[in-house]
Amino acid sequence: MKSKILMTLALSFLMMLLIAGCTEESDGPTDDGNKELPVQTETRTGQLKMIEGATVDPTDLQVVSFAGASDVQGDGSFSVDATMTDDYQLMMFRSKSNGNPVFLGLYDPAKQEVSASDSSTALALTLLNPYLVFADQMQKDQYLAEVMNNPKFENLLNMLNDAYMNDASDIFNYDDNPKLYQLIVQIMKESMSNLGNGYQATERALYKDGVSIGEPPYIQDASGDDIMFMNPRHVWYAAGIYPNDGNLSDVVTLGRAQTIVSYNWGWPPQISVSAQETPYTLGNGTFKIGVYKGIDLTKLNQWNDPVGRASILNTGEAILNIIRLANGYMPEPDFAKLSNHINISPANAEQLNKDLVERNTEAFLVDFCIFVASNSQSLANWAWQENQVAAAQNYLNQFTELMESVSFVFKLMGFINEEGPFYWDLLYAPP
After folding, report:
1. Among residues 8, 130, 20, which one has the least CA distance to residue 430?
2. Which tens digits make up the pLDDT trace of 146-159?
3. Which of 157, 194, 288, 358 could bridge across to 242 with cysteines, CB 3.0–4.6 Å?
4. Are strands 89-95 and 61-64 parallel, antiparallel or unpaired?
5. Are 21 and 133 in contact (CB under 8 A)?
6. Could you tell me the pTM of the whole model?
7. pLDDT per residue as tens digits for the range 176-201
8. 279 strand-pairing partners
9. How far is CA 67 from CA 87, 104, 381, 385, in A?
């Protein structure tokens, strides 16, 4: 006979942001040191349409993807290796003189082509939208169509063209062009709200057809000695099994909810999910089960500790989803090796902790982007399982810096709050 279970939710002293989640099902991460990434690349070609009067020459530009880099030719033509994806993918055109991004290209998987111009730059910037983390390709098509219908999109193109003629190699510098980012965020907000027929949440909303935002993971009884962990959250949890309320005997990874039941536009979008099931054979006896979200930065090398495992999983997923926001598909590397690739400064750790204690989502997103950008080389190595090309570091570093500037404007405008569908789940979901 199965005996009594005491289940507790425990909050470690620091939680880490989980940036986005893909809707594909996965079997979860492993600690297999020989894991191979099923990353496939393909060669993409195109032609950059230069802006007349721009203060940059195409021969000073290099096109960069997460898989390769090559010089742009004098006529604007280019060819570069990139990871295969069925989602929009952002390409970067950076100055070889100072390393700064100048244009952003946009790969459309439906057309299987890369557009590269002022228009693709504007559209790519609006895709760096944290509220798009659960949107599929069809929904992103709807979003971009609404972006282009927004009267302010023409203003954004004019602003970009003025910046190209003034100082193209410094166009994305926030200090020089703060109004550029402010306009981008306004277009993001208005486009999503318009798609939702003007819906804007005024209070913390419940998922309409799924599990409410306030529900923690729970246990369902199963047959015999089996139990079923149910996780309705977008974040990873780890459970510690303590027989007879004694020493830790096992650690269980609780899969995060990934199946989207419905996605309803608005500001923010309203998303329903199905709880993720994780079966576990418990056995007979009395057990204490502690369920942890993490993150304790001192335990990122402790895979066999429940707080450590949750910390590793949520930190790694957060990093991967920054990559996915720009690059599209990216499989999961070896989470257990993540600690070998992180060097967080005491100041950055203290600020992240402060943001989380205060539940300051806006500040946290900015500070997390700073953390990822400062570790871009080692994290690119981790994502590629030590086989990354040098271009991956530049790609991750510079897109994260762009995301930091967008996030800073969200902070200034007070657009990020606990009603959002993902980042906010980690900060506001039960610990």
Report:
1. 8
2. 999 999 999 999 99
3. 288
4. antiparallel
5. yes
6. 0.83
7. 999 999 999 999 999 999 998 865 55
8. 228
9. 16, 16, 12, 13
